[in-house]
Amino acid sequence: MAMVPSERRLSRLGLASTGVGAVLFVSVFSLDGPAWFWATEQHIYIVRHGDKYSSYPPCDETTDDICFDAKVMGNNPPLTPCGRQQARYTSDWLQQHARIDNVLVSPFTRTLQTALPLAEALNQQLKVEPLLSEARQDSGAFRAFNADAPGETVRDLSECGARWDWRYGAASIKTPENDTLYVQRVVEAARTLKARFPPSTGNIAIFTHATPSLSIAFGWCYKEDSSLKQFLDTQDAIGPAGVVHVIVKQGGSGSGTCTILQTQNVADALKCGRTPAY
């Protein structure tokens, strides 16, 4: 029987301890074999967005150069200058570690901006996937383009628009989203992305948010009777532009393994920003 996570651990997955199921369930491969046995090996890099403006004091309460303008940014704050640096840093790190064949991204401004340096470096399009959206939002990312946002944000979003893969069809999520809808959505996200991007399609970079990043990693590998609490107890919190690395090995007979490596907060090396790990 699956163990019930603590309230603090549940909050990392965007859940409340009010009867919401504690386990996300999708299939897991389980047969080991020697290196030559594997017909296909796929690497999935799940990346959190970089430092965001909403981590800073409101503009009417501070004289700092960086502040959060809720009127302009709403529920969709862009990246700060630090966040944009973190996005470039993690893009370079990803390119050093794997060939990325597909770039998937949440439709929120901060995730689009975080994915942009990698898409530009690889000359790839952005597959915008609402299933990767932030948890429990009252509405979708309706402020994705705002002419009053900081100048670099407008430029970034213009570039994202040019790289938007319009052939990639994806339905909107249900909002407002409560705990129950969130659990259903991330289960659907793992199932859908595994079906659309099997190992034969190559490696994937998925740009999302702190809460969905851990949920989707868990759902990618673990089966119904697995313990969510046990997974979270061994997984470090993910920082801005941090990475959760999932490895899928598929054998010629259809068997295989799925492994989640420890969180790698690679952009911490820049030592900037106020957005905390979560």
TrEMBL record:
<dbReference type="InterPro" id="IPR029033">
    <property type="entry name" value="His_PPase_superfam"/>
</dbReference>
<dbReference type="Pfam" id="PF00300">
    <property type="entry name" value="His_Phos_1"/>
</dbReference>
<protein>
    <submittedName>
        <fullName>Uncharacterized protein</fullName>
    </submittedName>
</protein>
<dbReference type="InterPro" id="IPR013078">
    <property type="entry name" value="His_Pase_superF_clade-1"/>
</dbReference>
<dbReference type="InterPro" id="IPR051710">
    <property type="entry name" value="Phosphatase_SH3-domain"/>
</dbReference>
